[in-house]
Amino acid sequence: MLAALLLWALLLQPDVDANKLLPGLLITAVGVFAWLKFRARMDQKLSKNFTLDEFKSKDGAPTPPEVLENLRELAKNLQVLRDYLGKPIKINSGYRSPAHNAKVKGAKNSMHVKGKAADIVVQGYTPTQLAAVIFKLIEEKKIRQGGVGIYPTFVHYDTRGTKARW
Length: 166
Ligand SMILES: [Zn+2]
Description:
Blueprint lengths: L1 H11 L5 H27 L20 H21 L4 E4 L4 H6 L7 H4 L2 E5 L5 H13 L7 E4 L4 E4 L5 E2 L1
Parallel strand pairs: 3-5
Antiparallel strand pairs: 1-2, 2-4, 3-4
The structure holds zinc ion (ZN).
Zinc ion binds next to β2.
C-alpha cells in the first residue's frame, strides 16, 4: 500500500512541495483504507441480510472456497424465506468443519459439512409452522428443493437438490 501511495505521489504530483504532498497522501491513505474495509465487508456478505460470520464453523475452522460457494447458494435461498417472512432468521448452525461435525455427532454425510445446510429459528414461528412456509416456497419453486428436518427447537433446511424429509 505504501508503494502505491508513493507511486501515486510521483506520478500525479511530480513537483509539488512536501507541505502539499502530505495532506494529499493522507487523504489517499484514508480513501484506500475505507475501500479495503468496504471490500472486506462485501466479502463477508452472502446475501442482503446474511453474513459469512453467521454460517462459520463453531470451532473457528476456516471456510474452504467450495464451501463458501455452497453457503452463498444456501444464503440466497434463505434470503427468499427471510423476505417472505419479513423477519430475521437466526442461524443456529451453518457450516461445520469435519472435526466440529464429529464433535456434535452430526451425520457422517451431513450437508452442514458441505456448507449446504442451516439449522434455523424464527421468532414467533414454531418449527412446524416454519417448515410449512419452507414447504410452500419449495412447492412454488421459489427456493431450492432439499432436506427439511423438523426438530423440537429448530428447522434444518438444506439445498441438496433432492427431496428429503424428517
Ligand atoms: Zn441441520
